[in-house]
UniProtKB/TrEMBL annotation:
Coiled coil: none annotated. It is found in: Cell membrane. SUPFAM superfamilies: Multidrug efflux transporter AcrB transmembrane domain. The chain crosses the membrane at residues 171-189, 196-217, 229-251, 272-293, 305-326, 365-385, 525-542, 549-570, 582-602, 614-639, 645-665. It comes from Micromonospora noduli. This is Membrane protein.
Length: 705
């Protein structure tokens, strides 16, 4: 006895020490992910998008690709001579900043005389350092003074504000996530010791995932952006804690049946590991379906998040069991489980009563919950997926947002961020005239052949490269608005119809248009693939066809209800203007994959119990013993995704809110009531066409007889 126990302890110690070495090597990379992240929207476009082709053509017309920062000065009573002197002095200092492409064009006065605008081209090769350049611009302007307001806006200003937001991921987001998980674990376990094990394992998972993501992003195998980085953080800690809760709950059960922790862990691992692996595998495969996306940003999120789940599975099935074996029963202090052969259901009094309630009212329960969820789906009419404008992108005011509003008041709103049109030299005049006639286009001018010392002249000789000319179309609406996007679509239709023009339209707004179109295409392709993949995994796990189809149907109903409820909250409570075009797909992948998780946890245990007890008794036993742990896991995951709200970015707040609400609906309504009641009402046929369907049908028929 002692020999086997000593050998088991040595194995556990060796596993823990090996993981601590791995953690020591990989840990520093968790804080370095921002070094290899990029937030350039154009870099994420498909290569065949029109905006991508336009960007490639633009590179032939300039020595260096630039992204404009727009420094706008406003005095409502009218710009003074002193203001002009100040602007001139600032512009001279702007030109000295490393990364600024000179010479700068002269300041552009507004027609009403109340504003001056300086266009500062920033070298696109600066990458993430564009944020540093914009910060220096803001330092030079020094902010508002004597009634003159100053803001740095434009695409470079927006990018700088986004970089600042995502810089919070390595610190505040990670800290908030850790605190949330810690508090919930203390409440769930009511132990001053046990919380350490899952939190330490989740941290190890994050470190392991970080080193692989860092190396792949550094080698340019995947594109890591701030959004993917934030989701990686909450996903690893949320899913990792879920898997830990499931394993620990099963381990606690087995400690009642075995004298030695090693034997209890072996049995618990055999019982819980298949469900955990199936759950993690479902999430991984669902995430990898994002590789089918035409957007590089989506394709990046898929493998980044899948790496996080894979690392979490590996750690939770090796490192965590070893820690728990070393901890033994004392880890559960002060409620240490004794080897008393107690029925696991005895520790779950509340959930045993819930199971009894389901048994007495199965059909009314599943009908009522299904109707309630169906009613929530009516809120989908309020969803309104769109491309969020610059002023709608953040949950708080930023300098770039303020600057864009000033520009909109005094200039054609698209000034400084024009649409670019590339066409043949022979058709340039005709294309320019056609473009001017498009509603929403304020002006069209060619890129001049000579040095540019100011705005392009209408009749200037155009620069010709390989027989092509670049035209700049100033839009009447802000470049990130719905109006500007409509103009781009109409502009493309108009210039494409000019014979022999071979016209290509690009620019900031065109990037948004092509991104939105690609997102819609992705939804139509990826969502059906994810559903088929999940159905196959469930069929293999449960060895049935009817059960997987019903589980997918309940999760889809839960997903639609979640989006309906979120649409109402976003519009009428949070006062958000809409959701980003990428939101429905991301919400689907996370909600369906994670929602299926809890049904896997439940139904794999129900099947195990059904083999021993019969289907209806198995449903009640499975619900009773998994109810507490699955609900706790759902609360943990919901809380960790809620941590995304610390980032003042609407798209992440919306995604975090949707996942949190959806997970709670899944765990509290779908998994606790709808699925058990439906399975109980259907009975053994739930396992059709598997052998268990026939065996349990005969057993329950004999019992009834």
């Amino acid at each position: 006895m002692s020999g086997r126990g000593g050998k088991a302890t040595l194995i556990a110690v060796a596993v823990v020490l090996a993981w601590l070495v791995i953690g020591g090597v990989s840990g520093p990379y968790a804080g370095r992910l921002s070094e290899v992240a990029t937030n350039d929207n154009a870099a994420f476009l498909p290569t065949d998008a029109e905006a991508t082709r336009a960007q490639d053509l633009a590179g032939e017309f300039v020595d260096r690709q630039t992204i404009p920062a727009l420094v706008v000065y406003e005095r409502p009573s009218g710009i003074t001579d002193a203001d002009r002197q100040r602007v001139g002095a600032d512009a001279a200092r702007f030109a000295q900043i490393p990364g600024v492409v000179t010479p700068l064009p002269p300041p552009i006065p507004s027609e009403d005389g109340q504003a001056l605008q300086v266009v500062v081209p920033v070298d696109d090769a600066e990458g993430e350092e564009i944020g540093t350049v914009v910060e220096q611009l803001r330092d030079i302007t020094g902010g508002d003074r004597d009634g003159l307001t100053v803001d740095v806006s434009g695409p470079a200003g927006l990018l700088a504000d986004l970089i600042e937001v995502f810089s919070a991921i390595d610190g505040p987001l990670l800290l908030v996530t850790l605190v949330v998980v810690l508090v919930i674990l203390l409440i769930v376990y009511r132990s001053p010791v046990l919380w350490i094990f899952p939190l330490l394992a989740a941290g190890m998972s994050y470190a392991l995932a970080s080193v692989f993501v860092y190396l792949l992003a550094d080698a340019d195998v995947v594109k890591l952006n701030g959004q993917a980085q934030g989701i990686l953080t909450v996903l690893v800690f949320g899913a990792g804690t879920d898997y830990a809760l499931l394993l620990i709950a099963r381990y606690r059960e087995e400690l009642h049946r075995h004298d030695r922790p090693w034997d209890a862990m072996k049995t618990a691992w055999k019982g819980a590991a298949p469900a955990i692996i199936a759950s993690g595998g479902t999430v991984i495969v669902s995430l990898l379906c994002l590789l089918l996306s035409s957007l590089n940003s989506n394709r990046a999120l898929g493998p980044v998040a899948a790496i996080g789940i894979a690392a979490t599975l590996l750690v939770m099935l090796t490192f965590l069991p070893a820690l728990l074996v070393l901890g033994g029963r004392w880890a559960f202090w002060p409620r240490r489980p004794r080897a008393d052969q107690a029925d696991p259901r005895a520790e779950h009094g509340i959930w045993s009563r819930v199971a009894g309630f389901v048994a007495r009212h199965a059909r009314p329960i599943w009908l009522t919950t299904a109707v309630v969820l169906a009613l929530l789906t009516l809120g989908l009419t309020q969803l309104g997926a769109t491309t969020l404008g610059q002023s709608d992108l953040f949950t708080q005011r930023t300098d770039s947002v303020d600057g864009q509003e000033v520009i909109s008041r005094h200039y054609p709103a698209g000034t400084g961020s024009p649409a670019t049109i590339f066409t043949t030299e022979q058709t340039a005049r005709q294309v320019a005239q056609v473009a001017k006639d498009v509603p929403g286009v304020a002006d069209v001018r060619p890129l001049p052949a000579g040095p540019q010392t100011g705005p392009p002249e209408a009749n200037a000789a155009p620069k010709v490269v390989d027989g092509r000319v670049q035209l700049e179309a100033t839009l009447a609406d802000p470049p990130d608005s719905d109006g500007a996007e409509r103009t781009i679509r109409e502009l493309r239709v108009a210039v494409h119809q000019v014979p022999g023009a071979d016209a290509v339209v690009g620019g900031f707004t065109a990037i948004n248009v092509d991104t939105s179109d690609a997102a819609k295409r992705d939804q139509n392709v990826i969502i059906p693939v994810v559903l088929v993949v999940i159905a196959v995994i469930l069929a293999l796990l449960l060895r049935a066809l009817l059960a997987p189809l019903l589980l997918i149907a309940t999760v889809l109903l839960s997903f639609a209800a979640t989006l309906g409820l979120c649409a109402l909250l976003f519009r009428h409570v949070f006062d958000f203007p809409g959701v980003d075009s990428s939101f429905p797909l991301f919400a689907f992948v996370f909600l369906v994959a994670l929602g299926i998780d809890y049904n896997i946890f439940l139904m794999s245990r129900v099947r195990e119990e059904s083999v021993k007890r019969g289907t209806r008794a198995g449903v009640l036993a499975g619900l009773a013993v998994t109810g507490g742990v699955i609900t706790s896991a759902g609360i943990v995951l919901a809380a960790t995704f809620s941590a995304l709200a610390v980032l003042p970015l609407v798209v992440l707040v919306e995604l975090g809110t949707a996942v949190a609400i959806g997970v709670l609906i899944d765990t509290i309504i779908v998994r606790s009531l709808l699925v058990p009641a439906l399975a109980y009402d259907i009975g053994p046929k739930i396992w059709w066409p598997g052998r268990l369907s026939r065996a349990n049908g005969e057993r329950e028929a004999r019992g009834a007889g």
